[in-house]
Amino acid sequence: MSSPALLFQALRWRVFRNSLTIVLAQSWWRVATILFSCALIWAFLFALSWYGFHELKTSPQWRIPLEGSLVERVFDAFFLTLTILLTFSTGIILYSSLFAAAESQFLLSMPIPDDQVFSYKFQGAVAFSSWAFVLLGSPVLLAYGIEIPGGAPWFYYAALPLFFLGFLMIPGSAGAIACLFIVNLLPRHRKHLVIGLCILIVLTSCIWAGLWLKQVREVGFGARTWFESLLSEVSFLGSSLVPFHWMARGVRHAALGQADLMAYNLGLVWSYGLFSYLVTVWLAKKFYRSGFNRLASGGALRKRYDGHWLDDLLVWPLFFVDAQTRMLIIKDFRTFRRDPAQWAQVLIFIGIGSLYFLMMRRYYEQDIGRSFKIGISILTLTATSFLMCAYTGRFIYPMLSLEGKKFWILGLLPLDRSQLLIGKFVFSAVGCLFAGEFLIVFSNLMLGMSWLILCAHALAVALMALGLSGLSVGLGACMPNFRETDPSKIAVGFGGTVNLIAGLMFLALVIVTVAGPIQFLHGRDAERAVPLDTVPWFIWAGIVGGVVISGTATWLPMRAGMRSLKAMEF
User: Fold this and answer.
1) I need a surface site. Which of 15, 53, 271, 320 has the fewest CB within 10 A?
2) Per-residue pLDDT tens over the stretch 294-320
3) What are the sequence ranges of the domains in the chain?
């Protein structure tokens, strides 16, 4: 009899082969589109990285030796960021696949060891969360190998995949251990959990604020000595005790042709990666089933059906909609807050963005020019719009399709079907407005942008929130998939791909028409303020064009979706 591990690998290969055969037979162009998009992103990152390393090496303003220790510190920060992102993403994916998937319930009822089930799910989660790591990391490291003086040796390029594979197990194991810890050790009652988290956040904030104010009084806020003091405090991140430093040091030694030191760091990465994986599997053997049972039977004995205080908090921003539509929006919000895979990703992105914007001005307010800040502001707007497009495509577009098998319940309600779409549209638009406007206003304030740029960016975010919500809700009603229960599969289907492409084209048009002209105006003379009465006509024309584009992208898909939903029979 074959071992469970071999059976799971055979199952994984067969599922992958069958899925690929079906996709190539039914929608081969979707695979081609995804591959082309990934290749385009990879090529752009490679060109940008190559240009950056080339400028650092040859520009008289910089003249930074790429073989020096400064680049190793940059790689330390790079791999630290990827470690944090991989830890969070693996933990979120594992939580959904281990404790919320129907397949896990079926596998736990079979005579299969718990650690084998966990390993099967762990490998899939790490593979799914690491593709972005490879997509973002490989062009940077390849460009570094090309631009280093004399060129990197051949074994540098051969060792990069080995470094990647060994390193992935470390943050993946950390995320898995955190997932098991959360499920097994946190309080059963949400009230206790919320109180504990609030106390922890308040204490951490007070301690951090006290240390920061003490440092500001000693060395001065924003001064170079303050920045150097901060670097000395976090210098432990570049010590020999952290895995991401082994990656940075091993990559640098490989590029310099020092094969012995490269092999030593590669051995460190793989040995600790395998050790962390074994520790994770051993903990899963002890705590996976107990955590699954605890989560399935957790909570209070008496269920509450009267709502939650968060639902009541959502009522006042929705004063402009009728009571029936408001209840539908609250229903969608309850689905959102009960799914950690959704709200955790939103909180992570907002937290990372806020931290980046907060620290950006403190580090560089004396070193970067006004023109560079204007360029950063448009890049920030683009990144925020990409996040909104990804969120609406991944979570908003499948919402109506997931109502399919339960639509008979909604069909009994005395309401028009178009109110379902209006409720989902308002839910998506309000959420995107709150998150997007917070990030874009906060970033522009930290950069010290003029009020014209801030208003233009805020208007662009508002238009994109409406347009992306209209596209996702409307196209979700025009091209639903009621047979699929997995929202991720609905999002990557034919309709989801069309929605993603339409959303990317839409946000590009809005950025070019609304934010592009004002960026061009300030870029010509970054130090000069632009009074309102001297704003040229093409600025106003671009704003009007953006409003028309957003209105079209909102109304046409919504109208088509309403007609399609009313004509459906269930």
Assistant:
1) 320
2) 877 765 444 555 556 666 667 777 777
3) 27-296, 321-570
